[in-house]
Batch of 3 targets.
Target 1
Amino acid sequence: MRIKILQLNKVVLIGMICMMSQSVFSQKFATEINGVFKKWHKVTLSFEGKELNENDEDNPFLNYRLNVTFKNKNKEYIIPGFYAADGNASESSAKRGKVWQVRFSPDEVGTWKYKVSFRKGKNIAINSKPDAGVAADFDGASGSFTVKKSDTRGSDFRTKGRLKYVNSRYLYYTDVNKPFLKGGTDSPENFLGYYEFDQTPASHKYEQHAKDWRIGDPTWQNGKGKNIIGALNYLASKGMNSVYFLTLNVLGDGKDVWPWINENEMTRYDCSKLDQWEIVFEHMDNLGLMLHIVTQETENELLLDIGQLGTKRKLYYRELIARFSHHLGVTWNLGEENGPVHFSPNGQNDNERKDMAKYIKENDPYKNMIVLHTHAVPKKQDKFLNPLLGYQYLDGVSLQTQNPDFIHAIVNKWISKSQNAGRNWVVSQDEIGPAGSGAKPDSEDPKHDMIRHKVLWANLMAGGAGVEWYFGYKFEHNDLKCEDWRSRDILWEQTKHALDFFNDHLPFEEMQSADGLTDNNEDYVLAKNDAIYAVYLPKANKTNINLFGTTNTFSIKWYNPSQGGKLQNGSIKTIKGGSNAYIGMPPSHGT
């Protein structure tokens, strides 16, 4: 249900596709409101000012500031807005126009009132003082709209609510208070280097996914975007729920993604390109795919203000927040492989990392999760992560690990250290080594036994928040050149089997890593004492579990991590507490 409302001098004109009453009031200035007026759906307010251009000497991105305050009972949000050219730039590729917009995702039903602050002044966009500069154009505009309950079904975030950090090992859906486990793709990192976005090098076409586009799915400019939308459809159809991508890789590996009017102009933003990104991101919301927004990489972490939180960097974050923070599954990543190392000796320091995290958290009205991507070697992880333990503006860590043998221990380590520091980190495994191979195509590794054991289940059984798969650089459809996600079809299925097991059979948010409970040095144990014990066996070896601390009787069920399916009986159906009990053998001796 989509509604378009035009407010003009207290006269309300309503055109709608289907019947729905709205209480709308306006006190001066033209305000156009578009969207689905239901909880968790995007509502876009558009305002008209004087005509401006992306290239104007009086920079519309830097010297104007739009903030809109939304109120509903005891809730209040101050949402940053942005210059939108003609308001239809995804279709027109316009560089000039009179339109400013703000995007809002209401989290309550009922009447939302809004009031507009629109100010002008030198560098005012990054000035936090409410009365900075002077009032301009439509400053003071106000009104209201009514939001009803959402009736969306399926994998859409709107059935469960926004993903929120709640000082837990896991993100939680706000409406259903259930934890979120991530399974998705880390590659291609230059996912947005897509040939049908305006002013974008043609690194990716995703032609193999044209068949995955469906009638009714979004496009722009007479059918552009079908391939990238189809690719996302495919990934979601495999049960995945997250995509990792860079929004800036100038000087980096791909050199094909930036949000500006050109790669050297860092205070002027490409309205049409960013609106086209928004079409793709909105479809990701509909599919239940989290936006893992990686804001820079190691090669360019000094590109903006020499790494400091200066004018360019503040404006960059403000524009990303204004245009994309309303999405219901957002992770802000401060930077891939952040911090100086031997192959990238010039990098940001601890204070600069903290400044970035604080600025994003304080300016994102929805307080979406903030993480830091690490280097691959544990020694460098220690150097850059230890000073951030307990820091109130960092919510998690995006791990890169060179040797998969270390993943389970590393995930355990940072979960424990963050818990002891008083701020639990959401710990994800987002890049695996060796760098050349990563997660190989099914054609090269059809069983994926090693990475299923040492990466996927290693993270989850340590209490980690999930995995995104990195594709290396040596094989077909690699990290920078992947055109077909079907190249890892079996891997997606095995990832889905793991997510299904945790979501369907375990109270995993109440469980802790407890590997020492068994006499098997290769297995993983996740336990809720006296209640449930999950044991992952990479091989069907004889295994005993220490149940001396309980007098309960436990049933034993087996699950096949490579094939999924129902829980099955093994050679032993029940065991009693109070002993070091043999758990028996699985129904088949395969992994």
Note: The CA atoms of residues 554 and 586 lie 16 Å apart.
Target 2
Amino acid sequence: MRSARTAGLGRRVALLIVLGSLGSLGGATARADKPAAAPESKEAPPEPPRRSYNQARKAYESHDLAAAEKDFLTARDKSEADAEVRYRAAFNLALTYAQKADGLTKDKPQDALAALQQSAAWFRDAVHGRPEDPDARHNLELILRRIQQLADQLNQGQNTLEARLGRVIADERTLRDRVRGLLARVNQAGMAAEPLNFQSEFEDASTFQRTLLSDGGAILDLAGEQRDKIAQQPEAQRKDEDRGKLVQLQNLEHYLNLARGTMADVARLLRRLQGDKGHRQADVALLQLKRALEQLQDPVTVLKGLTADQTAVHAQTRGLDELRKGNLRLPVEGQQATVKAEAPPWLTAQLLADQQKDLQPRTGELLARLQAGVEYADKTPDKADAKSAGQPQDPREAAQKRRIIEAARQAVPLLQQGVTAMEQAFSALQGDQLTPAGQAQLAALTALLKALERFSGTRDLIELAYADQVQMVALLTPPGKPASPNDATKGATKDAKPDDKTAGAPELPAAVKDAMSKLSTAERAAMLKDSTARNQDRLSRLKGLFADELAALQAAPAAPAAQSAGGQGGGNDDQEKRAAEKQRYELAEQKRQQAAAAVDRLAALLAKGGPAALPAAEDGRKNLEELRRLFFSVVEHLKELLRNQTQTHDSTSSAQASRDEAEKQRKLGPLATAQSGHAELGKALAEALAAQADQAQNASEPQAKQAQKTLADAAEEVRKAHGAMTSAAQTLQQAEKQAQAMSFDLEPPIEQQKQ
């Protein structure tokens, strides 16, 4: 019935199976040399689908692809109840389009891509007609990989590993949510034990998962090519970023291979109608894909994620410790008495140990990347790259390279301390020793924060300095006296663009204020001393950053493309932009000097124990606030909020996937607090955007007024998001209370999180 034929797909050889001839409807073999009986009517009878199929097959073997395409289509369209013809015609149509693409790839790659997409569509049709046959599935995966390879060639390398992996993650998230919705319909129909009526939907989801599996394979191939290219270079010719990239790619391949194995399990489970297991495995695959993506992210992004996760685990450990010691009490309604607060069922030392265990290898991977970069930099002269290229080195790039290497050098021992502290915290949690675990977690968190600050750029350093300065003002403010009013949104500097205006000084959370009120004089003095020293260091580092930027702006720029072509407009625009940036950094340096003088004055007053420290702290805050306005962007905070909300959505979906109610309740525990935090930040950002819109409306500059509608529309969208976040937080809080007595459904907050 079948004969095998090989067809080349790019650099791969794919085994594409050409199906043999089909017998007539009566069972005899169709023969071209046997004349047909004379028709009884004047009109010729319609061509039987099996005859069309056999004609198409002969045309295919003769390389007449146009005739093969026509007759295979005829056979497929007229197959009706003949499942064999329908499957084989779809399969061979896919082969025909794949062969057509082979002839077009060199001269007409865009047409070849369209042919491959048609080939994939017909292979999907064949898979749908015969899900148990592995041939169509195998060939669909090969064709999808060829599509991705050709698309990459057409995009001329613009389709980066990070972007492609991000799309796979988004699609895997969609698949998981789709399976969860399918399970809900199955349960409503009362067919959870045997969901045969939903078989086609399960098969469609399985096919989609195999498509994503193929996409992951294409990414893996591309990563392997990049790794091999770097590995084949002589050691002396490798750049410092190549050394770090090699470690990144090796770690990426590890997690991507794990994810692909899990995705294959998902596809198999869905074909077997095992939706619950498939959903849980899809959640695991999503986590593994996100770990793979983390390997491609810059150190600052990875460190921010590690710091946020370690902060959350430390807070929960401290909370459980305080609850067990009986230090937290709740008021009795209608009475003045209090009762000992009990830990929620989900908050256990084992849960915290599992969370802590995940942080150590992630930190170790980042440490390995930084060590590789530093080791290579130590072996290579600083100016080797510029000389080897035969071009002068850009001042800004050279300064940035020096800062990154130095930051990595300082971060390596800090991360080593962090890994050691994480190991100690994990061991303590396994032994149910919460107090030493909390101390080790605090040491790990301190090391991560210090390492993160080594990589901080201009904006981050200003934000960190400003936050510490606000805290110092609060520490020095006498009890009962209100802190200085927040005037951060009362206008902006003349040179600031609407997007650069500050969202307002951060209000200290009530819990932080309460904790401060309980500090002893010695504890306050120690905190003030540490914060002042940190801000002195930050302001000193900002001086170097500003100087590097001014040096780059003052250097002679390269000739603009428009000028080289005889135009003048582009050059003038560039000069205006450089002049505006130069003015911004000159003003920033003035504000930095004023802030540094105020902080130095505060340090001297604290050393003497004088009573005039508060005015100096407040003076430093105001100067940092003005500096902050020059560089602040609401967009950065919106991006971070989007990332955090997506993470909470994934965690909520993961909790919903749990079949065991105890596990579901355990995963639910931290979600309400996280969601409430997102809602608070969303409200602050909406108010900041609205304030900026008002400022733009009242401004005299035409550019500011043009930005007014954009800012107002953005404020409205964030208000809508805040409403959905608040609703999700409230629903999660209700679910947490409900979980004590009965099962609960997380679909409502999941939908609110999507909004």
Note: The chain has a mean pLDDT of 77.
Target 3
Amino acid sequence: MTVLASYQNRLRELEVAVAAARMHGSSAGLLLAASLVAFLVSVYYAVVQGLPPWLPALPAVIAIVAARRLKKQRNLRYISWRLAQYYRRGSGRLEGNWTGAIVNGEHFRESGHPYSNDLNLFGDGSLFELLSTARTSNGERGLADYLRLTPRIAESRLRQEAVRELAPRVDLREQIVLLGEYDFTESKRETFDEWFETPAFSVSRPLQVAALLSSTLVVLLVLAGAVGLLPWLIIANALFPVLGFQAAVGLFYRARVHALEPILRPISLETKILRDGLALLETADFKSSKLQSLTARVRESSAAVRRLERLLNAQRERHKEWFYAPSLFIMLGTQLFMAIENWRARHGAALRVWLEAWAEFEALNSLAGYAYENPSSVYPDLLDDDTASFEASSLGHPLLPESSCVRNDVALSEECRFYVVSGSNMSGKSTLLRAIGLNAVLAFAGAPVRARWLRLSPLSICASLSVVDSLLNGKSKFLAEMDRLRLMLATVARHEPVLFLIDEILSGTNSRDRRIASEAVVRTLIVGGAIGALSTHDLALTDIASLDELRGANVHMGSREGGEPMDFDFILKPGPTTEANALAIARMAGVPV
């Protein structure tokens, strides 16, 4: 059975479960309404007509049972609906209808990043949008970091091992889908970061004990007055100095408490899903070293987060109208903040580790879901070679539908350091360069790649494929491209092996200067140990690949043999292009040439 068929079968099961829960819930609701009416009628007749007083108990019991059944069926319907949403989105990815998701990673864009904007990592129709099944915002950030930060090869191997183990764990992915109470992402790392960055709210231990004892004394005195053990005059005299002490302490810490309150309020809404996720992770049994390391990092974390959750919930409940006034007399607000800050002093550093571990786990889980949904993709061979290499057979663009994806062989190594890819616009040059870059990103993240096989060494990816004018920053396209090329050259200067991908290099200048400057850029990159590809429709640049000392190769993309000028086959062919189809295209557009 294909993955799509299994998803669709599971989706049908869940849709049936939703319908059944709705029907059973409706029956329970009708029974609840009828039993409540019967209860009221039986109470009336028991009071007015003198019927047995136990008579209302029977419909009351039925109402309780019906109410519990109604709640259970609503929960079942909601659980089934959330899982159905997951499989509906998964089926959409497999059918090629996955763009337009609510979360596309747009907020993770970085203007100066060496490749994320050029390779379409974030935004509509991006790699992030295709991959992400993260349940929390913190997990989304973990996936974004996996895509935009290239790790050491050893780390990529550990990730790959973890993804292999997680890929068949559909049951685990269903558990993650059901974390939390609501079907939207929670647990934003930024919410916790704001708390981490605030000055510590330290209180001496004796003062905390004195505050607790004073609050306990207030409660005991009020209870003694309520039950008549002590006269209220004596109680009032005893309360006066205690309340004065509490007022002094509350006023002293009032400014700090009020400053922390708006920061802690959103945290209280996000601790439950974090606690549930950490509990799931710390009790999981994994074999890969990466996953075992993550579970070790979060050991006993859920219990600690549960304590924080209780404190934050109490702080939130304190503001309810019925409880706010009494809470002032026992200095509850100040004491809760003391307890919360004590928790931060004890567990704050560990909480950062727990958040990072959960973010990594969700990133690995997203990549595992992609691996499961793309069984034809392969895990790349990650080499330890000091010399840069990227060699692939049947390499395809991972964002294109499998049915329309044209694959090509790529061999960039010591023997052939770079390609000059010539051809007209829309012939597939940029798509080829992005296929190389995106598969490198997937490989280093630990995911399988769209290829028959792929071998690559440690590489720093640098791309200049989507450079545009920036009126806001006062930069032309040419200057923006120069900034990107300067970044590539600086990376090479640090003796890092670079994979460079450049589309229409230096197109903003005249042909003569372009030829000279392009050769200088390529020469500097190659001498520095880089490999890569640059595309052009300027045949003058194909001479660069003919220079023996640079060890480049001319390849081209164009129309099918004997086809129309715009009938491209997107197949990589040896040698520079021999097509000159600009005039033919102009004639197709009705231009008399």
Note: The longest strand covers residues 390-395.
